[in-house]
Design brief:
The protein is built from 6 helices and 5 strands, in the order αααββαββαβα. The chain is of the alpha+beta class. Strands 1, 2, 3, 4 and 5 form a 5-stranded antiparallel β-sheet that branches. A hairpin with a 2-residue loop joins strand 1 (86-87) and strand 2. Helix 2 crosses helix 3.
Length: 201
Amino acid sequence: MPCPSWLPAGLLLLAAVLAPGRSPAQPRSDSLRAEALRDFHGPDRTGKDGPLAKAGLDLLLLYHEYRAFRQEGGDSFAPSVPGARVTNGHVSIDAIARTSARKLRADLSALGLTDAATAGRVVSGRLPIDRVPALARVASLRSVVLPRAKTQDRGPSRPRPGAGNAVPNAAPAPAPPPDGSHSAAPLFFGAALGALFLTEG
């Protein structure tokens, strides 16, 4: 029996409907992290020999997130890097000089670093986020880290002295009478009642 002419087309349509769909597009956050990893590790994705490795992976990720935020026209920028201190398109950094902190401070000031301060070979300040690639190419820079936002830590609570030996809900022991005047009262009433029963018997 010859098969109907529409059967091959119907089978193809059915196969297309039942075939598994394509995997969803790569999340935006994953693609941004991939760009940061490429800048940090280089094409081989190993070592710290990427073209912008001196900026550090956290700062590179923050830069790519900020660039995407600017392109998409978002309202407020919230980086995924924990504790990063970001305000008005600037990020707080601690940059370590290769040799001279004075030279590094001058180079970073030329990039737009504000509120600069120096301690030893560390130059701290607020850098425009869009200048991160230029920062990574500064010859006087050895490396850079992001100072984390500080949180108040009260530490573990300590038990009060003697609290470990205390008995919960224990009632205080009754205080002894201030003198011996009241201690004989129960004996007196007991003796009187005994005498009363004997006389009645």
